[in-house]
TrEMBL record:
Protein name per Swiss-Prot or TrEMBL: Phosphoenolpyruvate-protein phosphotransferase
Species per Swiss-Prot/TrEMBL record: Microbacterium esteraromaticum
MF term (GO), any: phosphoenolpyruvate-protein phosphotransferase activity
Enzyme Commission no: 2.7.3.9
Record-annotated PEP-utilising enzyme C-terminal domain positions: 12-281
């Protein structure tokens, strides 16, 4: 079976009732594209652009950025590629963007907040993306990290559209934007939930701090309820809601996330096969029932257990 699987290109992601769920890749550099395609990624759900910035003392030029984006987009002709703008700050500090000392950098000038404070860098990144988009034939979606307010959503999507970028959205990584997702999705074409940060901010536990690592569990029903807010808002507004945090790589949690309204899942390419296999064994009604069981609990372990037993029924 293993050999046959390696030989034939994997089927697109689908539930047992035929409902399509795009299975996408999280990538950190263009060179990772070939492996993702070989593993059946139907596109890219999160392209992290930090690699362009972290290695140097200054921002890369527009030309350097354009070349990297063209390399990525060319590998996914006709497919969806979601590029995230630079997410500097907190766990990804950058000397030229995050120069002031912050006592609590995860709560400071990071993500879109940092880009907005250095708008020249934001504008250069949008320029490079628009040029790469014009030179290639992928379906480019662009999103901003760490968006907290509706006003920030409107600011970013308006600015990105001014550069000719067609599909512009936001990452939902902060409880505030999850709770106001119906308002956020009036302005954004899509939302992508970053469960790593959404968990950190919901549980008020630094994701880098070992002493509070037990709080960093996306199965926690408080996190799941926020995901449900976004999923329901997406359904009401007719807008896609993706998941691009590590949670999407947990096969049973992937089913729960679909049951909460996620329309695509993005993950490390190595996780695609197991998630594809698991979601194919459940219908959308199953996923909703399993999600309801997980939601109706008081902690992460109980949610995991409730989902497991609901999935066996
Ligand atoms: C997340 O926060 O879930 C996410 C996908 O972004 P990153 O891990 O890069 O912060
Ligand atoms: Mg994040």
């Amino acid at each position: 079976a293993r050999e046959a699987e390696d030989a034939a290109p994997p089927e697109p992601g689908a539930l047992a009732d035929g409902t399509a769920v795009n299975l996408l890749a999280n990538l950190g550099k263009p060179g990772d594209a070939a492996d993702a395609v070989a593993r059946g990624a139907e596109g890219v759900g999160l392209f992290r652009t930090e690699f362009l910035f972290l290695s140097s003392a200054q921002a890369p030029t527009i030309e350097q950025q354009r070349a990297a984006y063209i390399e990525l987009l060319a590998a996914f002709e006709g497919k969806k590629v979601v590029v995230r703008l630079l997410d500097a700050g907190a766990d990804k500090p950058l000397a030229f963007l995050n120069d002031a000392h912050e006592e609590n950098p995860a709560l400071g000038l990071r993500g879109l907040r940092a880009l907005r404070a250095s708008e020249d860098i934001l504008r250069e990144q949008l320029t490079a993306l628009a040029e790469a988009d014009a030179a290639t034939a992928a379906d480019l979606w662009v999103m901003a990290p760490m968006v907290t307010t509706v006003e920030e959503t409107e600011y970013f999507t308006t600015l990105a559209k001014d550069y000719g970028l067609k599909t512009t959205g936001v990452m939902v990584e902060v409880p505030a934007s999850a709770l106001l997702a119906d308002q956020v999705l009036l302005h954004a074409d899509f939302a992508s939930i970053g469960t790593n940060d959404l968990t950190q901010y919901t549980m008020a536990a630094d994701r880098l701090l070992g002493s509070v690592a037990s709080f960093q569990d996306p199965w926690h029903p408080a996190v799941l309820r926020l995901v449900r807010e976004v999923g329901e808002a997406g359904a009401r507004r007719g807008k896609p809601v993706g998941i691009c945090g590590e949670a999407a790589a947990d096969p049973l949690l992937a089913v729960v996330l679909i049951g909460l309204g996620a329309t695509s899942l993005s993950m490390a390419p190595a996780a695609l096969a197991d998630v594809r296999r698991m979601i194919a064994t459940h219908t959308l009604d199953d996923a909703k029932r399993i999600a309801a069981a997980a939601l109706d609990t008081s902690d992460a372990d109980a949610a995991r257990e409730a989902a497991r037993s609901a999935a066996q029924r």
